[in-house]
Amino acid sequence: MQYSVMVEYALHSLVYLIDIPEEESIGIKDLSEFQGLSETYLSKVLAKLAKAGIVSSTPGVKGGYRLAKAPEEVSFWDVIEAVEGVKPIFQCKNILKRNMMYVDKGHKLDKENKMDQEAQEESSCACTSGNTTCLINLTMLEAEAHMRDFLRKKTLAWLNKELTHTLPEHVQKGTREYFFKKK
């Protein structure tokens, strides 16, 4: 399992938006320059966050981005869903139905033990084949649910608090000065 680097850039960008004054925003140019990214790429990331209602944007020369929700209301999982979408990580192909014991009578296996295309399309996993439960799919879905629950508990507010304790003071101060010295 691997999330795209967009998730990391999204979380980092959101960290910089946490403590800005209510009437302020941070421009895409500053956010992208600070992270060493192209404005175009970071704009795609922020567009996904805006579509999910996590950030809002102000157009114009003095415009930029700001959090649309309180940091306590934005979880890591919210960010992952905004950037990656909502499909499950594990994509069960229901290969149990291709097992010689479960092949539908109307669908024959070819020489390479593959079902025809129609049979494959009909075999999306519903966690059961006949009376047998697909334990692999159930286990993977359960593990995914635990991960989602864990990531839902980790919010931007939690991250900000942790960074306050772990980042050296000069890094925290330098970051704030970078974004607000230009204002």
Automatic annotation (TrEMBL):
Gene3D superfamilies attached to this UniProt entry: Winged helix-like DNA-binding domain superfamily/Winged helix DNA-binding domain
UniProt keyword list: DNA-binding
Alphabetical list of InterPro entries matching this protein: ArsR-like_HTH, TR_Rrf2-type_CS, Tscrpt_reg_Rrf2, WH-like_DNA-bd_sf, WH_DNA-bd_sf
Matching NCBIfam families: rrf2_super
Record protein name field: Rrf2 family protein
Organism: Paenibacillus turicensis
